[in-house]
Design a protein that fits this description.
There is one protein chain. Helix 6 (199-207) links the parallel strand 5 (185-190) and strand 6 (211-214). Strands 2-1-3-8-7-4-5-6 form an 8-stranded parallel beta sheet, with helices on both faces. It is built from 10 helices and 8 strands. The chain has 317 residues and is α/β, with parallel strands linked by helices.
Length: 317
């Protein structure tokens, strides 16, 4: 492997949209398990960036005033910092360079993709995302029984569907549309049995022809499911962001996620699929989110995840 290949590790220590604190410590946990060193040992030139300080997106108690979302102002500010950090890296280094984003929370996906759309402005090229997540995250701020946590609204803010916060609409394409529609996202590993994925949320995906691969399908055939999803997206976009929310992994086997989701999907099967995605010449980023080291006192699970990420990136370029 050529030593000139660069991987930019972007730290996003954040608990701002969390139900429980702890995810802000994920970048430090990854480092303590040797992520950067192992990437260097694999032949990469590793650069490191911090989009947020250790305290700028920390957990604080919040009500839902005025628009139904908790910590709205601080969340939008943090998303702006993440988007600007990635946009500057892309401006300085161009495409394709590889970004490994230790994102803390899923709510940063609109910000991450908006940075890529900014870079592609004035071209006909498209960026897409493989959203490896147990949840479809289609809540809205005023929805009955919603927690008000913006992390549960991630796809709402990527699509800018009805109910999206006005303040999050700055994370968009140049024409002000959402960073995704049904042509540039695959929802991979969705747990259709989870109560968090409401019937009307699943109906939105169905009615609008979104590409969905369930956690049950991935468990049965992880590599084949991933290859089919990747082929579908590669036909439609020029660049791919791979997003991994570790809540897609069943907590009975691997309870590293912030909030458990009983998906029935194993760790090995999940990472086998992610490695398929990372082999694509169109993959330009991996964002890893919802890792809570407080659930991993000895960091054994974090270490296993680090090893799988490094192994998966071994085939990039």
């Amino acid at each position: 492997m050529a030593s000139k290949i660069i991987i930019n590790v972007i730290n996003v220590p954040s608990d701002i949209g969390s139900i429980y604190a702890g995810k802000s410590r994920a970048p430090t946990a990854f480092r303590s398990k040797g992520l950067q060193k192992k990437l260097r040992d694999a032949g990469y030139h590793v650069k490191e960036f911090s989009a947020l300080s250790d305290t700028s997106a920390s957990w604080v108690a919040s009500n839902r005033e005025p628009n139904g979302a908790r910590n709205e102002v601080r969340t939008v500010e943090a998303c702006g910092l993440v988007s600007d950090t990635i946009a500057k890296i892309l401006d300085d280094e161009g495409l394709p360079t590889f970004q490994l984003i230790l994102a803390g929370e899923c709510l940063y996906c609109p910000a991450i993709l908006s940075a890529y759309w900014r870079r592609l402005s004035g071209t006909s090229e498209k960026v897409g995302i493989i959203y490896v997540d147990a949840d479809c995250d289609l809540h809205t701020p005023t929805e009955p029984n919603s927690s008000g946590n913006i992390a549960g609204m991630t796809l709402t803010h990527m699509t800018l569907r009805d109910g999206a916060l006005e303040s999050m609409k700055v994370f968009c394409r140049r024409d002000r549309s959402g960073v995704v529609d049904n042509s540039n996202i695959v929802l991979f590993g969705l747990n259709i049995n989870s109560e968090a994925n409401k019937r009307d949320h699943l109906g939105y995906l169905f009615d609008n022809n979104f590409r969905v691969v369930t956690s049950q399908s991935v468990q049965r055939a992880p590599v084949e499911s991933a290859e089919a999803a990747l082929r579908w997206l590669e036909e439609r976009v020029d660049y791919i962001v791979v997003y991994l929310d570790v809540d897609v992994i069943d907590p009975g086997q691997f309870p590293l996620c912030n909030v458990p989701n009983w998906t029935g999907l194993g760790f090995e099967e999940t990472m086998a699929a992610v490695k398929v995605f990372l082999k694509s010449e169109k993959s330009v980023a991996l964002s890893v989110a919802e890792v809570n080291p407080d659930h991993d006192p000895g960091l054994e699970m974090t270490g296993r995840l680090v090893d799988e990420i490094v192994d998966g990136l071994g085939s990039w370029r």
